[in-house]
What does this fold into?
Amino acid sequence: MEEEIERPIEKVLFRQSSTEQRLSPVHLSEEDSDDACDEEIAKICRTPKIIDVKLKPEDGAFAYSETQDKRRTSVGTLKDIKSSRKMASPRPKSPRQVVLKNDKEESFWDKIGTLGRKKRIKEVQEVESEGKYAIDSPGSPNAPIVPPEEYALDENEERCMIQPHAFNDPKLHELMQVLIEWINDELASQRIIVQDLAEDLYDGQVLQKLFEKLTNDKLDVPEVTQSEEGQRQKLAVVLAYFNRVLGLQVGGSNKWSVEAIHSKNLVAILHLLVALARHFRAPIRLPEHVSVDVIVVQKLYGQLNHRMVRENLTASYDDVGMKCERDAFDALFDHAPDKLQVVKKSLVTFVNKHLNKINLEVTELETQFHDGVYLTLLMGLLEGFFVPLYSFHLTPKEFEQKVHNVSFAFELMEDVGIAKPKSRPEDIVNQDLKSTLRVLYNLFSKYKNVG
Amino acid sequence: MEDIFHWCREGNAMQVRVWLDDTEHDMNLGDDHGFSPLHWAAKEGNSKIVELLLLRGARVNATNRGDDTPLHLAAAHGHRDIVLMLLRQKADVNFTNEHGNSPLHYACFWGYSDIAEDLLHHGAVVSIANKDGDTPLDKARGNLAKTLHELAVEAGQDLKKIKFKDQSWLGLKTRSRDATLSRHKGINIKELVLRDKLASSPSGETYKGIWQKNEIIAKILAVRHCTSRISRDFNEEFPKLRIFSHPNVLPVVGCCNSPPNLVVINQYMNLGSLYSVLHEGSNVVVDTAMALKFALDIARGMSFLHGLERIIPQYHLNSRHVMIDDDLTARINMADAKFSFQEKGRIYYPAWMSPEALQKKLSDINWEASDMWSFAILLWELATREVPFADQSPMEIGMKIALEGLRLGIKPGISPHLTKLIRICMNEDPGKRPTFDMVVPILDKMKR
It folds into this structure.
């Protein structure tokens, strides 16, 4: 619950694509101000386009009332969507399969037109309550069958599937969660919320936005595409841009491709996102050495063959910090690891000289500065002020609290005239040694002679 | 003209009261001839208004351009009740104006024998010569001269003429304030002439300067990026610091809001802060009586501030933030209050702050009680003439007060009454600390 409340965006517009029932975020163009959005939402709310799912009592299956070209629009707050999604899932995969339209049955629209007639009012109410039940009821009694077309493979076509048991791996979950949070943080200003990596990223729309956000470039692609072919084209363009930024050859990486991503291959999407997070130095700490078992199915001569492959999604990283101009620390790390120890030792001596005054002792720079507490206290000791305890978290537990502490310490540095540190607060919290050393060295060079 | 001087002249006590209730009004301001409201009320014999003004702390010895005090005027116009009231408020009975005349000269000249006798009883000297060499006795006629002579002899006065000495250059007088001082909120930065840099602190740089012929202190606030939001907040907050209506509060005269420069201007105080008087060596001798007077002044000022709606949340009471006026009145310096955008998360003088104020947000604590704690530290400082926790850095002090129970020890040699008062004011339970209203009478009693 808390997580939902703390989300920065209250209202999100969701859409459902023509081929997909699943909710995916709608992207509002940048010109849309908050007001415009609200207005838009209000407009949609007023026009009765929201279609209720109606349960047909006779056969118990879901029936969907008709809309023009069967596209469905739904509007609601994130919370509503989430909860209703939770309760109504699993959702039917494709509308074609479940629209069992009875000609005799009047559609919702017909009823709207007859609202004036008294004898029909009761019927309308019944239908409404049915609709409500359909939305609120804890799931469909008959889960719709997954259409067999999805499994049909062409000759020589390959398909990857993650072993079901791999999803039990907490590290994979963590990786996906970290990536989702990163994307959502990046795209918060665009009012985009991603809930599922495969389902939300396959059409290239979110990837396009992500690219534009990360590179501050505007991509020359259509804003919205509905057709599958359009999506593919757009995805191809976006991936080409990504490959260029990532410095890959024209062929791109063999780990992801337009086809793979568009077919919602989670492994390919994860590979792409990890590469992006690494390249743009996302302020996140990726869980290390995450791997999944993948079954690759291929149709050869009319036979389905499968083999198991182990895909390594992440490796171990020693630099999570932001890339910046090369400085002495890069040289130090690359060429003189022995000297690094000397630097660390003198920094430890320096900070302890001051922290000892308030009975604190540091032994390890990497870990003991990551939560920002010592950094904040150190600033007070060096500059001769006390930091009121309400302005930071003395015993931070959450990542956000630690980031707050480190950013607060950075603020203090800037307030007393120290140049804004090149490291990001997140780098320090993620225990990036190089970033931590840079910050401490800055202090050292200014205050080494302070008693 | 409808203004305060007019109301004081015609005796409109009601209007005067309303006017005085506005904290932005300075009751010591003077008109074009330097007459303060008290001058006018004393001259016209409006005793109610005189009483009102004295009660609010109007300066009894303020002078006009002719160096007359209200006592001169009351004596010259024969308002005996007012003369007595002024004398009770310790008006300087032998003060001479630009002609060298004391109030007694006027009482004698106009033949107000009652007043002349009252003045004599309060120590008026009969032999002060004015510029023309005349003493009050020379001015008195007939019976009055005889009685005065007898009384003076009785009081043991030396009847030898005291020659006129022009002392105006000594600058001992406290003129009524230039009315322009309280009239302008926003001050044009171009009208400021800044001369000597006095200090540079984390909150900004302090200069001594001149503005409209007044000596002023200008503090240029240290702001990292002066955004339009900060400028707007500044504009909203500084008028709340213009409190002219209490003698123990030193108002912010005005401000220049010309980003990137935000300047806070207040009156120049020759003697500096209480901290410098106590610890940095000055000509002021702070004996026990003086220390008690300072304490009483501060308590009165704080009591007044607590009586107002909360002005600005961030006034931290400590000896650096109290100024000492020429007449040795301690005044709470509103220019030392912190603006909402200033020194966020930095406390430079935690030694004076209560443990709860170091740990919790101002909105979460009883700030009046927290001020009382600071007052207790001030009392300790006045009693010992020492800087609290002088040997430790702010961070050490703050952490130890907040988390380790570091407290000031009461040293032997402090009077038992004061010791008790300090203990009461420094109660660990904020709810059990007294209010300034309660402390004022106690200090008043101790002073006597």
